[in-house]
Amino acid sequence: MPSILSSTNVVDPNGHDSNLRGGHAKARTRCLKPLVNSGSLDKFAHRDLTPVIGREFDDGLQVRDLIKADAQLINDLAVTISERGVVFLRNQDVNPQEMKTFCERITEAGGLVLTSHQPESSGLHVHPLTESGSELGDQISVISSEKQKKGGGLTHQLSDVSRFASAGWHADITFEPVPSDYAMLKIHTLPATGGDTLWASGYEIYDRLSPAMQSFLEGLTAIHDAKFFHDEAARLGNPIRDGIRGSPLNCGGALEAIHPVIRTNPVTGWKSVFVNKGFTRRINGVTKDESDLLLGYLFNLVAQNHDAQVRFNWRKNDLAIWDNRSNWHCATYDYAEQRAGDRVCSLGEAPFLDLMSKSRREALGL
Ligand SMILES: O=C(O)CCC(=O)C(=O)O
Ligand SMILES: [Fe+2]
Hints:
Blueprint: E1 20-22, E2 46-48, E3 55-57, H1 63-68, H2 71-84, E4 86-89, H3 96-109, E5 141-144, H4 145-149, E6 180-189, E7 197-201, H5 202-207, H6 211-218, E8 221-225, H7 228-236, E9 256-260, E10 262-265, E11 270-273, E12 280-283, H8 288-304, E13 309-312, E14 318-323, E15 327-331, E16 340-347, E17 352-354, H9 360-364
Helix pairs in contact: 2-3
C-alpha cells in the first residue's frame, strides 16, 4: 500500500517549495497564487443562497454572452464559483457545444495546466461510461432518469445498496489522477416537483475539524476507486473508455488514483477536505479500521451538516457550475417522471496540499 504521499506523488511546482505536497509534474496548476475578483460581475442581479455556499444569478447573465466576454469577466466568474462553491445561472439559452466552449474558458481562467499542446489531450473530461460515437460528442455526459432506470448513467447511486438519500454524496471523477476542477450541468427536462440537487462545502467541513484533526489529516492520502463502473458498463453493454480521457494521465481501466486527504484550491488558496463517499475507499498509512472510522466520520460531516449545504430547486434550462476540488454534490431521486440534462466536466490540476495555505474562515477573517 502506498505510504503517506508516495514519492511519485510529491512534486514541487516552484522547484524549491517544501510546503507543497502532492501534485504531478505533468499536471501542475498555473495559479501559483490565488486569483483576484475585480468585481466585474457585481452589476448582474444575484444573491447568496446560504452564508457558506451557493450564489444565484438572474437570467440577465447569459452563457451565450459570457462565451464572448473578455478575460476579466471569465476570471471573475471562475473566482466566484471557486469561492462560493456553486453558481446557478437561471434560464439559459445555450446548447451543449456552447457549454463545452464555456467550460473550456472557465477552466483556462481557473488555473489548470493546459496540456493542449499534446494533441490527444484537452481541458475536458471524457467519462469512462460515455458511449463512443454519441451524437453530442465524447465530452458531453447525458444525465437522464431513463438511463438511470436501465441501471446505467453517470450517477451511481442506484448501485449502492444504502437506502439513505445521502448515500449519493460525491465529487466528480476523483478516481482520475487528474480530476475535475469545474463541472456544469444544465437541466432541460424536469418533473413537476422534485429532482433537487444539493451541494456541500469542503472548505466549511475542513473548518469544522479541530486543529489537531486538521494537521493529522494533512499528512495523509487516500485511494479513490471507481471499479464499479466496470459492472455498470457491462450492464449497459458499452465498453469502458480506457483511452485518454482528456489528459494523458487519465487512461486505462484501473479507474483508481491516490490524492491528498486535504487539498488546497489554487484559485482561492483555501484548504478543503478531499474525500468523498462516491469514490474514496481507503485512507493510506493507517489501519483499515482507522480508515473506515475516519472516512465514516468525514462523510457524516458532509451529510449531516445541512448548514454547510445548499439545495437547488431547478427550473427548466437552469445551469449550475461548481468547483469539484472543494465541494460535493448529491442528486435527489424523489420523482417518477422524466428528468434530463447535459453535463460537461473540465480537468484541473493534480490535487496538492500547500501547507502554507489557509482555511476559508481564516482567509475571510471569520
Ligand atoms: O442529476 C443531478 O442532479 C446531478 C448529477 C451529477 O452528479 C452530475 O451531474 O455530476
Ligand atoms: Fe456528479
